[in-house]
Amino acid sequence: MLDDRSKQILCAIVQSYISKPEPVGSRFVTKKYSFGFSPATVRNIMADLEDLGFLSQPHTSAGRVPTDKGYRFYVDCLHDINEPNDSNVDMGEFLCHFAEKLEGIRNDINGMFSEVTNALSVMSNYIGVITPPKPEKTTFNRIDFIRYKGDRVVAILLTEEGVIKNKIFTVDSRLTQEDLNRIADYLNSEYSGHTIDEIKGILVRKAHREKAVWDKLITRAIKIYGQAISFAENDIFVSGLYDVMNLPDFSDISRIREISKAIKDKHTILKLLDELSDAEGVSVVIGNENPVEELKSLSVVASTYKEKDRPMGVVALIGPTRMDYSKAIYMVDTIAKCISRTFD
Amino acid sequence: MLDDRSKQILCAIVQSYISKPEPVGSRFVTKKYSFGFSPATVRNIMADLEDLGFLSQPHTSAGRVPTDKGYRFYVDCLHDINEPNDSNVDMGEFLCHFAEKLEGIRNDINGMFSEVTNALSVMSNYIGVITPPKPEKTTFNRIDFIRYKGDRVVAILLTEEGVIKNKIFTVDSRLTQEDLNRIADYLNSEYSGHTIDEIKGILVRKAHREKAVWDKLITRAIKIYGQAISFAENDIFVSGLYDVMNLPDFSDISRIREISKAIKDKHTILKLLDELSDAEGVSVVIGNENPVEELKSLSVVASTYKEKDRPMGVVALIGPTRMDYSKAIYMVDTIAKCISRTFD
DNA sequence: TTTAGCACTCTCAGCCTGAGAGTGCTAATA
DNA sequence: TATTAGCACTCTCAGGCTGAGAGTGCTAAA
Q1: Is the shortest CB-to-strand distance from B101 to strand D under 7 Å?
Q2: Measuring from the CA of residue B59 to each C1', which nucleotide is nearest?
């Protein structure tokens, strides 16, 4: 749809603007990237690109700035090339180190997640995000119940992936520790290998089917298991609000307010990342492509991490639309793979 | 040290500046608070107060602004009066509601803590902080060990206060679940009621004393208990960075950067709050009184919450030095008492 | 000791200006 | 026909100037 020359010039403009946030003019393009056209020619092409919606002008006599559509075009080109550029090579070494570090804290999954978001944000100066595995995707390993202070019970749920969840709730005080053990034994022997959510369904169906021999154990198990797995909404790990403030894109206080509002209720981000969690490879969402209102002025680069090819959660970078997409894509991709590897 | 008239005027200026961040002039003081002096008299007094270091002038022909010393004087006066003022009465009702809500989530201590910081920051527009009970202050209730995936063990530690901690670590693979149970039984029957830290000391001493009959159980218990309680630094709960951005005091981007840097590494705040944790009642630290460099432009109002008169942790508000101290003190005090009550 | 009066100082918003950068259009050129 | 040189035009931005407004310090009178 775009001839070769326009394509070159558009990409040059986007690249230039990404590396320095100043409107880029025709003369600058001819000087910096010696294509062999004169500024006047470039001007004509730029005018065309503006008509097509790839560029815009802050005011009549300023240079051009990419629109979201312009960034989109650029990112799609990147996809074609996909060669590790210079800065990515620099990062490679760091990421190797990082992978080793992750291995070291494999046992502490929450620690690992905050380490990951930290590394993401420090290296990129954007906001690093990671969503932990969701209950419907995590595999039951075992559950235990411990009586605690009168009629309370602590449930400890372990998943295959290494997530530990605990919850305190109140039960019928006639239920003894032995009863609890029996229930736990039953659940552990019958259901390991299923996902947390599946088990609930199976239990309910089972109780239904065998209602002739309506088993007290199963009834109790259903009730207690239900209480034990009703956790608060999965928290997501976010880091880098401070780093992002140093970007020129957010030198304006109202933009900072906007962005902190967006990441304050993590629910919004979770919703967006959920939608991306089934995509293959790295997804890039640019500015107003974003379905969520609060994030329409930001871009998101995301990739899923997996356990044995089953997608578990999402790693992402959130930054301004004027983002170094090449770098961000490389980072998110590499780190998602690192995490997947530690799960095996 | 200050005569009655100066005292009145100083407090009036501080109050006025707290309610509206504009330098206050002599004419304004005489109009707003009808003391019966003329502006000229007030001017003389203000000049004296400036010499004494309670006030300062942004520039020659502006009104006066309180210095940290001025705020300190004001807060000390407040202490004398300590009558609930109008806005505090308004809050009273909210806080009652809040106390009920806390009761409802008593079982989920972490949930309770984030609820508390949230309420603090939303109501005050300052930053709400709470430090959870520290290991050396929490009382051991019981510990359990569960084998998990090969040679790993999950330790679940319950405290009297309702804190649940878990940790995965690796052990000698010859240690069976029965061995682990024996160790847990031993610890649970012997040591409930002591603090987490005490127990470690007791175990070590005991092993030493009985080295003739060097008991395998105790040796193992020491080793495993040590691994189980070596948690990462206690996290503190912080909330309200977004709310604080809407204050006129932080309309400047560099101040926002400063403040987010300060609360980014929670360690800094933890250090400060630790120092305040033994104080009786509400402590107020104003601006450069602050021992920590990063917080010298902020004020902290803090109070400890207790379990049966033993101080457990600290609730605090962090805000600009131009803080509504009266309100902040009232809030922090009330909420600390609420929390203490839920522990009984 | 307090107050009225007055000259003085400082900030701030508004206005203007010239330099600089970049454009769009037109006419000439390869 | 596609490209380019030239030129007038537009817009921003920093800098300087100005008058209004607010508040002070000092002095002399009450």
Answers
A1: no
A2: C10
